[in-house]
Amino acid sequence: MKHYxxxxxxxxxxxxxxxNEPPMVCQVALFxxxxxxxxxxxxxADWAHVDRVSWVWRIPATNPKSKRVRAIPLxxxxxxxxxxxxxxxxSDHLFINLKIGERLxxxxxVWGAIADQGRTAASEAA
Length: 126
Prior knowledge:
Blueprint: H1 7-18, H2 23-35, H3 39-43, E1 50-51, E2 56-59, E3 70-73, H4 76-85, E4 96-97, E5 102-103, H5 108-125
Antiparallel strand pairs: 1-2, 2-3, 4-5
């Protein structure tokens, strides 16, 4: 069973994410693709965890799956996502529900709809 995307599938996914709503869920997905982080790590990320000089994201040891701080250097794509968010100064959290201003928590339903759009685009391209 394949657990990765080939180049064509990745390009299709990024296209779907870049053109979709709600934008915050799509930004989470693009951030995950850029960093290799776990969904729970991204959803729990705060601006205080991001060093904006060296562009390193430090994931605290309080994360249940890790016993120590993890430092993830942010590539250009991840930095672009952070700069597009518009949450800095509005919230301590990177990814928020813009309607209520609180940490984004549930993305599974939206992610399922986006995945369906990606599959539809793939079948139409074939």
